[in-house]
């Protein structure tokens, strides 16, 4: 008996210490993705979403002084990559959080990716949310010193995908995507405060220099400064932003260098500035696009009243050598910068359906190389490699930093980050109930009190092992983990969304033809039927995953909630 007991202990020890470690979800992206766009999309799935942080969890996710320096060094070192992409790029201080790996696109192009490897097993969000960065694996593959970023993933529409298309197609130097939604911690930013009724938030990387996104941009700038500087003829920092269709409705694309209409001379004088060339090239690019149902307009602050001028963008101000805010006066020392070719460029878009692969791009000449600092509101997918190529010619000379505003698809974005009540189906108030849109399922209609309904729904979701993240009082973001993963991971954070017991109780159909048992992401929201104040609909909508599995979960939740009763 003693022998068997000791043998059992030895076997347990060997299994626990020598079994191959489970692969992190973000690492799996490198195997599942076939293209760089697919990889970015996969990594972005783990973005920390709206309202996830409170004061304590946000501070826990923020880098320490040592980690912040290591993060800076990791970004700086990544830019030196030349056929030597390994995890050694990452300093030891953050090696337990970050890694670097090579990814080869299906077309043969290779890239080095700095990414977060720690994911909360239930919420499926990255634990830190500092973001990820991509550079070409070889220096020879860098055609232009363009540094692209999409500061507001999801909130600004498909700007990450659009920035990736531009990065890959232009042979740009770097691509940077944050790992948090701008509303992940909805506490007012102490850096750029914004209007009282719609403040900028702590996790808004465009308005808080404590976000790791800012440190990464400083590292990129330092690297660029050591490699020939950033002349406006060959270097640019471009941010892609988005806007709602109703915001600046007359402007399909809006460009800004960070100076508003008060300084219209910057945009109208005879000096050959990057922003002017960018506007010209955009007009050329879109004029040949027959897929557009309506004319595409490209505007500057000098010919539009659009307020999204990026005067408060902390990265743009840093790159354009405008002092930090001390009095929150957005025009402080702005005139002093007018003698400088502004390196930061912002691009905003509102048209979602412009196809970068359309015939309009085949013969398009590249953007003018001097366009280094501008903000644009335009459709991201029309901004492809062919459009930016002329902006910065394929020479070995360096490029001046330009910050471009993100391009977005049907985004509810405004400059402050508030949600447009016209564009959004969701209420601005976290405690308000949105109006129901779309088809009605009579079996999910109820007149029971809203709080009672949500309590019952949460009880049902917990009982079937669904990971739940509240987005508001009456809206939940849900994940049913894949069967191959269920029960194999344990929570590693105190604020995990559910217990291990719930995770191991995850429901799957016994019939694989009905439910392939893969991961399903969906939302559950209680909405009000228009004109019927006391009648509600429980809307269960698929976000990602197999349709049959979603249908199985839909029916299970509906039947167990028994709302009609």
Q: How much of the sequence is in beta strands?
A: 5-15%
Largest sheet: 10 strands, mixed
Spatial shape: globular
What is the terminal separation in angstroms? 58 Å
Rg over CA atoms: 25 Å
Give the total of beta strands. Answer: 15
- Our count of helices gives 14
Mean pLDDT: 76
Domain KA1: 513-563
EC number: 2.7.11.1
Keywords: ATP-binding, Kinase, Nucleotide-binding, Serine/threonine-protein kinase, Signal, Transferase
Pfam family, one: KA1
Topology:
Blueprint: H1 2-18, H2 25-32, H3 36-44, H4 55-61, H5 65-78, E1 98-104, E2 110-116, E3 132-136, E4 145-149, H6 159-170, E5 174-177, H7 212-225, E6 235-242, E7 253-256, H8 265-268, H9 274-287, E8 298-299, H10 314-319, E9 344-349, E10 376-377, H11 385-388, E11 445-446, H12 450-463, E12 467-472, E13 475-480, H13 500-504, E14 520-528, E15 536-544, H14 547-561
Parallel strand pairs: 4-5, 4-6, 6-9, 7-8, 9-10
Antiparallel strand pairs: 1-2, 2-3, 3-5, 7-9, 11-15, 12-13, 13-14, 14-15
Describe the overall structure.
With 565 residues, the protein is α/β, with parallel strands linked by helices. It has two domains: 367 residues, no CATH class; 120 residues, 2-Layer Sandwich (TATA-Binding Protein), CATH 3.30.310. Helix content is 25%, strand content 15%. β14 and β15 form a beta hairpin. α5 crosses α7.
């Amino acid at each position: 008996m003693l022998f068997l007991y000791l043998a059992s202990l030895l076997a347990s020890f060997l299994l626990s210490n020598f079994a191959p470690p489970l692969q992190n979800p973000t690492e799996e992206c490198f195997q599942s993705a076939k293209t760089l766009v697919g990889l970015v999309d996969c990594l972005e799935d783990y973005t920390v979403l709206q309202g996830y942080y409170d004061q304590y969890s946000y501070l826990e996710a923020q880098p320490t002084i040592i980690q912040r320096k290591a993060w800076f060094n990791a970004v700086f070192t990544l830019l030196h990559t030349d056929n030597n992409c390994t995890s050694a790029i990452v300093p030891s201080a953050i090696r337990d959080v970050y890694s670097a790996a090579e990814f080869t696109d299906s077309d043969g192009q290779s890239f080095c990716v700095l990414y977060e490897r720690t994911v909360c097993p239930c919420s499926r969000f990255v634990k830190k949310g500092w973001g990820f960065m991509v550079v070409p694996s070889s220096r020879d593959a860098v055609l232009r010193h363009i540094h692209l970023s999409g500061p507001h993933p999801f909130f600004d529409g498909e700007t990450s995908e659009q920035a990736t298309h531009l990065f890959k197609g232009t042979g740009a130097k770097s691509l940077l995507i944050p790992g948090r939604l701008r509303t992940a911690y909805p506490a007012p930013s102490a850096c750029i405060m914004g209007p009282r009724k719609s403040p900028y938030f702590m996790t808004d990387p465009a308005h808080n220099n404590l976000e790791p996104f800012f440190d990464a941009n400083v590292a990129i700038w330092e690297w660029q400064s050591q490699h020939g500087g950033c002349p406006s003829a060959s270097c640019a920092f471009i941010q892609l932003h988005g806007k709602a269709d109703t915001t600046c409705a007359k402007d399909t694309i809006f460009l800004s260098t960070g100076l508003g209409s008060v300084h219209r001379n910057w945009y109208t004088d005879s000096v050959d500035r990057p922003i002017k060339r960018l506007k010209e090239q955009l007009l050329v690019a879109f004029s040949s696009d027959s897929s557009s149902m309506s004319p595409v307009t490209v505007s500057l602050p000098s010919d539009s009243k659009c307020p999204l001028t990026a005067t408060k963008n902390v990265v743009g101000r840093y790159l354009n050598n405008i002092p930090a805010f001390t009095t929150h006066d957005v025009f402080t020392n702005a005139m002093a910068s007018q003698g400088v070719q502004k390196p930061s460029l912002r691009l905003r878009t509102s048209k979602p359906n412009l196809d970068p692969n359309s015939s309009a791009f085949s013969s398009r000449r590249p953007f003018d190389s001097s366009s280094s600092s501008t903000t644009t509101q335009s459709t991201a997918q029309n901004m492809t490699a062919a459009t930016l190529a002329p902006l910065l010619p394929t020479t070995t000379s360096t490029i001046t930093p330009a910050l471009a505003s993100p391009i977005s698809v049907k985004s509810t974005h405004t400059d402050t980050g508030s949600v447009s009540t016209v564009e959004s189906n969701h209420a601005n108030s976290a405690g308000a109930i949105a109006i129901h849109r779309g088809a009605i399922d009579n079996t999910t209609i109820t007149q029971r009190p809203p709080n009672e309904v949500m309590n019952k729904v949460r009880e049902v979701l917990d009982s079937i092992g669904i990971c739940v993240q509240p987005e508001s009082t009456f809206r939940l973001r849900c994940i049913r983990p894949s069967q191959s993963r269920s029960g194999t991971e344990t929570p590693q954070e105190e604020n995990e969304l559910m217990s291990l017991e719930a995770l191991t109780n995850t429901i799957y159909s016994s019939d694989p033809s009905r439910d392939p048992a893969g991961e399903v992401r969906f939302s559950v929201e209680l909405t009000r039927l228009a004109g019927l104040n006391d009648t509600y609909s429980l809307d269960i909508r698929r976000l990602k995953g197999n349709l049959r599995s979603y249908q199985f979960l839909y029916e299970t939740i509906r039947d167990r909630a028994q709302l009609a009763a």
